[in-house]
Amino acid sequence: MSVKPYMFRRLSGLPSLLLVSLLLAACDRLREVSETLLDHRTPRERYVASLESAGLTATALARDWTLAGERSLREAPLVSSPFAEEGYFAPAEPAAIAYRVAVRRGQEVSFGVELPDDTASLLFVDAWLVEHDSVTSYRRIADADSGRRLITVEPRRDGEILFRAQPELLRGGRFRVNLRLTPTLAFPVGSGRERDIGSRYGAPRDGGRRDHHGIDIFAPRGTPAVAASEALVTRVETTPRGGNVVWLRDVRGNRLYYAHLDRQRVVQGMRVLPGDTVGFVGNTGNARTTPPHLHFGVYRRGEGPVDPYWFVYRPRGDVPRLLADTARLGDWARTPNDRVLLRAAPDDAAQRVMALPRHTPLRVIAAVGNWYRVRLPDGLTGYVSARLIESAERAVAVERPERRLPLLARPVDTHAPHDVIAEVSPGDAVRVLGRFGTFLLVRGPSGASGWVEQGQ
User: Fold this and answer.
1) How far is the C-alpha of 267 from the C-alpha of 251, rounded, in Å?
2) Phi and psi torsions of 101, nearest 5°
3) 163, 200, 238, 422: which could join 407 in a potential S-S bond, CB 3.0 to 4.6 Å?
4) Following DSSP, what letter does each residue of 322-334 receive, concatenated?
């Protein structure tokens, strides 16, 4: 670091040792800022690098954390906007949660996560584009900045977006996710709504010799046609087909086309804000035989006209009322009978993942509407109706092993030493809370819950 002479003159009254300390601190700070600016890794990548530097990536806990993040993308449920879900990240269990949503070009989708229990926890939020209509091929397209828990994506084409949230190791608590689709443009007719659209993009014109390159929004003559975005007025003219027309170039680079205006109100070179009147609805040009309406089009450089409907369509509806008991979040529940279905999404019409046997233990990780998002002991996730499960507190049986058994944290045959919670002595009474494969979820004499293998 070079220091200008006048800096020494200003600081000459300070003790030399303090002066050196200040200069070294300044150099270190500048180096940190420089390294941060040059570090193009995502917050998640920087966190993984810190685990590597600490020699932790080889640990079972870190491996489980990575696998949980990957698995959440593969099992992300397809949800619709608006969507909200409340859940719980268990600090001792590496976990991640993800969602998949269909987005049309012209829309943007926002995904936010609230952590009311611990605002200091690191939470990694990223977005992925599903490629080739598959849930196994996707690429990351965005990451929330460090410390932020909100991410907004505006795709350039129709497709599906995955959103994932994952807390750092050994941190967690309650969370709430919110997902919402919104149009990127304001509606271009004052007081108008989607129901006023009478002709959609692609409809045949002139006996099928050409297609309709916009949408027609019907409104009384003289209704204001308004700027759908902050934009520059690039052309104001009258043409045989469009009649009185106005062209705007908005801040996203879209060219917005207003046609059949009764009259224009702007001039070329003006800058307009959303809601500013650019003209008034009419039926000039080749629309003289039709009722007054605005022909609204969206054009993109290199593409020409694109469907403007989704640019202005605002999805209706509210987030479903939360009816499931959130006191169960993070707890074990179980199926009371063999008629409980695990589904891919919180909907009776969603794909069936599997039918769950009686007394299957389920970790309740989230709640939406009258559904629970659950994780099976092998890590598989899905949704079950909140009405069809019961608490796993009450024992379904009591068993007394004939020999000493390890009480395991996970139902795995080849368990490692760190998987052993405690030991069950011969003759001890263990309360059976559920069954999964060859394992029993039990509560031992000490009160600790864990897994023992049947027949051992």
Assistant:
1) 18
2) -140, 140
3) 422
4) --S-GGGTTSEEE
